[in-house]
Amino acid sequence: MSEEKNPVVLMETSMGNIKIELNQEKAPITVQNFLDYVDAGFYEGTIFHRIIDNFMVQGGGMTPDMKEKKNRAPIKNEADNGLPNTRGSLAMARTQVVDSATSQFFINLVDNTFLNHQSKTPAGYGYAVFGQVIEGMEVVDAMRKVKTGNKGFHQDVPVEAVTIEKVSRVAE
């Protein structure tokens, strides 16, 4: 493995900026997938559509009117990479299907050890961590306090949209 620096992205949101270091060594597929979405400008105008205090904030796939953006193909789940779902870590959201992650991600507000990889079974596979908030955790903490409600079939949706204005690579 070369001594390359991990990529860093700046996520500009309607509530402030968050800087995230991506772990290319331990989650190469996930990081490349995320950067492909970043480079395509996919996240611009999406929202954090699910916020649960003392758990996580989830975004990266819905428009403010709760329509899902069209994704690329799902990726392999790298939850067995040894990176834990701890406070400030960035992980891929997915369905009950192990290898179903596309563009949606979440930032852990607390240590969510139950989301870690336990076994190679559908129930135990876990959620792939691929980055860590290195600046702006206070912005994430402010998100956890927004008022949420139901929108259609969706629960825990912020009443006032928390928008991702732009995500871009940062030269460190």
Automatic annotation (TrEMBL):
- Keywords of the record: Isomerase, Rotamase
EC number(s)?
Answer: 5.2.1.8
Q: Which residues form the PPIase cyclophilin-type domain?
A: 5-169
Q: Which domain of life is it from?
A: Bacteria
What are this entry's molecular-function GO terms?
peptidyl-prolyl cis-trans isomerase activity
**Tell me, which GO biological process terms does this entry list?**
protein folding
Q: Which reaction does it catalyse?
A: [protein]-peptidylproline (omega=180) = [protein]-peptidylproline (omega=0)
**Primary enzyme class:** isomerase
Q: Which family does it belong to?
A: Belongs to the cyclophilin-type PPIase family.
Q: By what name is this protein known?
A: Peptidyl-prolyl cis-trans isomerase
Species: Trichloromonas acetexigens
